[in-house]
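Friendly challenge for the regulars: who can give me the structure tokens for this chain first? No prize, just bragging rights.
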Amino acid sequence: MFRTLTSALALGLALTTTASAQEAKSTVNATYVAESATTALAPGEKIENLFTKDATQPYILQKLTDRVFFFQSGFYGTVFYVGDEGVLLIDALEGSGDALQKAVAEVTDLPVTDLIYTHDHADHIADAAKLQGAYPGLTIHATEATTELMERLGSNLPRADQVIEGDTLTYEDLTVRVVPLNAEAHAHDHAAFILEGTGVVHVPDVINPDQPPFWSFAGADSYLGYRDLIAQIDSLEWDYLSGGHGNVGSRDGIAFYNRFLDDLEAAVGEALGTIAFGTTVENPAELNAHTAYLST
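First reply, four minutes later:
Bragging rights claimed.
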């Protein structure tokens, strides 16, 4: 319930401020182009007015390559691949099941036949049951880590029909390479999914392209682990980054994140080297045993 309420509050705030808010400047001096489901985005280009579109449109649909499309609704994004016999969708975004169906139908008459779970966070996969109802025979795929975690936590979401064996999944002529993320900074079962031969990688909840890092570094358990995730994503082969949130990503976004984190580390280091322990609160011992630590 908390997740639903906070998501609704965030969207409500976005909707009420859209009229007066201006689109933020690009973090990477991006070239913005009009959203198009028929004209492919060149590497490095981004969708114009994305914040306003997220707050006012049912969904955003952008062609990335001949067969790969970028989808976003309510500030949550993913990608899908149109094959010869069906559609492969990555993630079933919470609250976006209907919009996903409309977006797919906008570019093909083929049904979604396969769905991949990227990680066991309901905000990214909660509409799986709705998609099962819309596409009879839908096959759900998940890594062994995600399958085991859903079982361990007693998830009430549909379980995977097939556990991804090894580090690849084949869908028609497409190979999806699964790269487990080395640091469990955001999720215990986190992985990157590379659509080989397309230049597209989908790795949600680490980098929000064309935006500063999300609150608490994407909810990371460890700041050091977060930097490790950035480095690992940078080491992969891709031209388009789908980050689950934010715009379509490119390599200059990685460079921006590294500069941002370098500046942050320098500022924090300067502050810690200047402010004496426990001096920011008068008589910290009179408050509680940890005030000096928490206030420095």
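Residues 222 and 256 are 20 Å apart (CA to CA). The mean pLDDT is 89. Your move, everyone else.
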